[in-house]
Amino acid sequence: MLNDSIRKIAIKTAVKAGRMLEKRFLNFDRKGVKFKSGHEILTLADLESEKIILGIIKKEFSDHRILSEESGENKKDSDYLWIVDPLDGTTNFSMHNPLFSVSIGICYKNDIILGVIYFPVLNELYVAERNKGAKIYCPYNSSRGKKMKVSNIKEGNIINTFCHGRKISDIKRASDYHKRQKLDNFDCRQLGSAAIELAYVACGRVESIFIPGAHSWDVAAGVTLVREAGGRVSDANGKDWTLQSNDILASNGLVHDQILKKIKK
Fold this sequence. Notes:
This protein has helices spanning 4-26, 44-60, 90-94, 168-184, 194-202, 216-228, 256-264, and strands at residues 34-37, 40-42, 65-68, 72-73, 80-88, 101-108, 111-119, 124-129, 133-137, 146-147, 159-162, 187-189, 208-212, 232-234, 247-251. The protein is an alpha+beta fold. It folds into 2 domains: 4-147, Fructose-1,6-Bisphosphatase, subunit A, domain 1 (Fructose-1,6-Bisphosphatase, Chain A, domain 1, 2-Layer Sandwich); 159-264, D-Maltodextrin-Binding Protein, domain 2, CATH 3.40.190.80. The longest helix has 23 residues, at 4-26. It is globular, with a radius of gyration of 17 Å. The relative contact order is 0.13.
């Protein structure tokens, strides 16, 4: 159940947080980062973006559940769940790499019904609504948006991407996967923002992304984009991806089975 008000607020919220991040990005000093774990950092920009997003959701939909990367879950009793990554690509942000984003997914009764990803530096807004397709809004297409569709490449010029969770086992799996794909195919690279990589699969810029140890806040919005753009999303065993899945493979569908074979090796 997605009404027009929820969709508009989700888009407005992602863009507002993203524009704040772009301002902070221009003058960011990496000396201010803190470590959440040996492989994850936290900046004040993460917290400021989260404050903007959660403030709007709580004001407009005070009874809705929220799961955010930095604050966790608010445990409200509601059929609606907002899944938020206030700054996806924090390491990129900290080193002045512009590949970072804001990601907001909305579930109704555990089904993802809306995905919104905002890429501030390119001013690209990706929006997908369940059973209604996916669109990209940006300065170089009309204000009505351009329909997104996964690529039709299945051999030759295949570009795969990857990411990983914080566990050492996830990092080892991702490293092994990268090595095999790099040797066997045209290219495989880590862009540093799972949300952007999923959006890139959805709009046909790359063919796939594999993430062992994926968190729901990193991928919930992007899953909707890929599915609505005609792609396929599964776990590492080929089963349909759910919020409880530990891994995720999203692709244009044409390369999905061959990637699953590589993952199983």
